[in-house]
Write a structure and sequence with these properties.
63% of the residues lie in helices and 13% in strands. By secondary structure, the protein is an alpha+beta fold. The strands form 2 sheets. The protein has a 5-stranded mixed beta sheet, with helices on one face. A two-stranded antiparallel sheet has the order 1-3.
């Protein structure tokens, strides 16, 4: 698997100078060279003759350029073979001017002056080397801007993928049902069915409605407050129906609840924090809600000190919902000296 990933990365690195319409820059580069040849062409030269001269004169330097960007960079430089890369590049810069001189002997330039023909080997080699070096710098500048463009594109893609992964994680956390609570509830329903208790059908229906609501609303960005309160009442009824249950919940809602929407499962998930591990002694959780103009204010008074598990879950609850719905979600809590815990939660209204 790692080898496959490496191969894909190297293939991407190899062709980044031609993908995403960057091949147009290469076409424009060689078109500019062709236009320079046409500008310097003699009056008697036809376009076909000039084009043939352009192709012959630039054949070797094109080989050098694309050997550099298709092999030296992806297979040496980007594989951290830096010493080998620079050695190969300097060798190419030294060898290709000499090859160009040999090439010019085989295919002499028509417009070459007698002075140029009579130039010494060292002088001609130096001129060829300077020509290669300057054109190499120009070509490298073009590749450099392509690299920067690719870095920006990659950064944007990574940020987008990171946001998508984070969103998936948060959605999973938002809809996550505590395994302890789920298994304990199923066990409770099984025992109730075996002993044929009177409240067994009601418990099964309530639990079924609650699970259905969680699965449906977990996919939504917001929930109508009225629906969330109905589900919360069902959740409380189900908890009260549990055998050997030590947690009693009192719920009070103040204000208008119609035509208002809040973060999905915000009320269900805050209640589940106190139901994951049932208290060993009788406890009371008082929940009081106030509908304000901008948000829903929730005050919770737990008659016991919050355990480390509850405190950790409250922290996660605040972090997850803040990521999903912004800084409008605010939560603070404290264990008071007289053996109880106070939680204040503010959940903003979600505009449809």
């Amino acid at each position: 698997m790692n080898n496959f990933v490496q191969i894909e990365i190297h293939n991407k690195n190899r062709w980044i100078y031609f993908t995403k319409y960057r091949w147009i820059a290469h076409v424009l580069f060689w078109l500019w060279v062709l236009l320079e040849n046409l500008r310097n062409a003699g009056a008697s030269d036809t376009f076909i003759a000039t084009f043939n001269e352009f192709f012959i004169r630039n054949f070797l330097i094109a080989i050098f350029f694309y050997l550099y960007c298709l092999f030296l960079i992806p297979y040496l430089f980007k594989k951290n073979k830096v010493l080998l890369f620079w050695s190969a590049l300097l060798a190419c810069l030294a060898i290709f001017p000499a090859l160009n001189m040999l090439y010019d002997e085989l295919f002499p330039e028509k417009r070459m002056s007698e002075t140029a023909r009579a130039a010494s080997f060292a002088k001609e080699y130096f001129q060829q080397f300077i020509n290669y070096f300057l054109n190499f710098l120009l070509f490298s500048m073009m590749l450099f801007f392509m690299e920067k463009s690719e870095e920006q594109d990659t950064q944007i893609e990574l940020e987008k993928e990171k946001e998508e992964i984070e969103q998936v994680k948060l959605d999973l956390l938002k809809t996550n049902i505590s395994p302890d609570f789920l298994m304990r509830s199923l066990k409770q329903l099984k025992n109730a069915a075996i002993t044929l208790q009177e409240n067994t059908p009601q418990s099964i229906l309530t639990f079924s409605d609650l699970m259905r609501y969680r699965l449906y609303r977990g996919r939504q960005f917001f929930s109508p407050l009225t629906e969330e309160l109905i589900a919360l009442h069902a959740f409380i009824d189900f908890i009260h129906l549990e055998q050997s249950n030590h947690l009693h919940i009192d719920l009070l809602v103040n204000g208008l609840t119609e035509q208002k929407s809040i973060a999905s499962l915000a009320l269900i998930n805050i209640l589940e924090v106190f139901c994951k591990v049932p208290p060993l002694v009788p406890a009371v959780l008082k929940i009081e809600m106030h509908t304000e103009s901008q948000s829903l204010l929730i005050h919770l008074d737990y008659s016991l000190h919050a355990t480390d598990s509850i405190i950790s879950d409250l922290h996660k609850y605040g972090e997850n919902y803040s990521h999903l719905y912004g800084d409008g979600v605010k939560i603070d809590f404290e264990n008071c000296k007289d053996a109880h815990c106070l939680i204040n939660l503010s959940v903003p209204w979600i505009l449809k």
